[in-house]
Structure formats: structure tokens, C-alpha cells
Amino acid sequence: MSISKIALVTGGSRGLGKDMAQNLAKKGLDVILTYHSQQAEAEGVVAEIAALGQKAVAIQLDASNVGSFGGFFEQVKTALRDTFDTDRFDFLINNAGTGLYQPYDQVTEQQFDDMLNIHFKGPYFLTQQALPLLHDGGGIVNISSGLTRIIIPNSSAYASMKAAMETLTKYQAKELASRRIRVNIVAPGAIETDFGGGRTRDNKEVNDHLASLTALGRVGLPTDIGPVVAFLCTPEAGWVDAQRIEVSGGQSI
């Protein structure tokens, strides 16, 4: 019997992360997913993954709080031992995040620091601390945004952190190559989720405007992103490394 590989997905209780976790399970991977405060939703995803025939566990994580990572990885070690009967996992997906829509001249230092901690400092050190538990030959998938390419006002703080993640991805790919760990970054375009207060999903004017800028004529859905992330965690993606993959339906081309 083949042993399933294991993926750790941060922010896996809803939105893009939930769809990533589900698609990983459909590819035959077991999943460790994290949640910030939505435990019931996270346990629901665990149940859905179990229904697909894969193992899953949910662990609480504040992905912006570097000081909490040591305790988090102790819980990961316990889950690996007790649920998956192993001491390593294979893929890390740095998905957790929040949005900020604020004009550049109104962004506060606190808002800037919040974006820095959740979108750059957090993933930087979470990945660093994950490395001892990550199998050689595994992979890391970071999440960026189409806003690093497309300039839409009021997104400067958020987009700047995602641009930093794109640079980090290339450094990680280079420096982890000796362990055959592939590192890629997926950049979604505008997506209908509750991200950023559901702005793209719930504001018809915003939704219609973004759809008009997109070659395929609509904004994206979580189901457009999850399969791409899952693909990067398969043997078929074994020669894909250090790449930014935009999944935006041709937004602003």
C-alpha cells in the first residue's frame, strides 16, 4: 500500500485555503490545515477530506505571530505521530492572510505592520521553522496576488508584501535546491471570497468592473485556484521550480 504524502495548508478553514485542502485530498494527499479562529469551519473541512478517503487534522495558528510558531510545530509533530504515523510532511502551502484596502497616504504604521506580519514576516519564519520537518524532495507553495503586476489603487501595503514574497520564493528555491525542495508562488487575480471583507464578492460595482478587465469575462472563484496549488504538489510538477504562476483569467492583459 502506498503511503500518502502530507501537505500543510495555512488558513485552510475557508476560502482559497479550503479549496486548496480539498483539491490536495482529491490528489491523494493527507492534509494538516490551520485556522485562526474558525475551529468549527476547520473541523468541517477535516470531515470533508475524510469523506474523500484521506486523513486530515486542524490546528490553530496565528500566522502573523512568529512567537507562537514553536508551540505550533510541537502540535504538528504530535499530529504527524498520532494521526499520520510519521515524523515529516511533504508540502507547505503559505496561504493564510488578510486584506487591506486603504489609500497610500492613509495607511497607518499599525496597518503596515499587520500586513508585514501576516504576509511576509510570518511566512518567512514559519517556513524556516518548518524545514526540519519537511521531507527532502518536497515542496513549498507561496501565495501572492495579481496586484504585484496590476496596479489598483488602495492596495499598496498588501501588494508590497506579496511582491516581497515573490522575491523570497526565488531565494528559497535557490537555497533549498540542495534538498530538492521546489518552491513556487501562485498569484490569484480577483477572487470571490470573504477576503478583504468580501469586497470582490459582495460589491456588484467592484465585481463588474474587475470582470470587465478580465479576458475571460468574470472574476475568479476559489475553485479556480485550488487545483493549481494541488498540481504543484504532484510528481507531474516535478520540474516546476522558482516560478510565479498567475491564475487570473487574463486580468488586465
Number of domains: 1
How many H/I helical runs?
8
Instruction: Give me the Rg, rounded.
Output: 17 Å
Q: How would you sum up the global shape? A: globular
Distance between the termini: 47 Å
Low-confidence stretches: none
How would you write the strand order of the largest sheet? 3-2-1-4-5-6-7
CATH domain topology: Rossmann fold
Proportion of beta-strand residues: 15-25%
Reported for the largest beta sheet, the result is:
7 strands, parallel
What does this protein look like?
With 253 residues, this protein is α/β, with parallel strands linked by helices. The chain has a single domain, classed as NAD(P)-binding Rossmann-like Domain (Rossmann fold, 3-Layer(aba) Sandwich), CATH 3.40.50.720. The protein has eight helices and seven strands; from the N terminus they run βαβαβαβαβαβαααβ. Strands 3-2-1-4-5-6-7 form a seven-stranded parallel β-sheet, with helices on both faces. The N and C termini lie far apart (47 Å).
Topology, element by element:
Blueprint: E1 6-9, H1 15-26, E2 30-35, H2 39-51, E3 56-60, H3 69-82, E4 89-94, H4 109-130, E5 134-143, H5 156-175, E6 182-188, H6 199-202, H7 204-212, H8 222-231, E7 244-247
Parallel strand pairs: 1-2, 1-4, 2-3, 4-5, 5-6, 6-7
Helix pairs in contact: 1-2, 1-8, 4-5
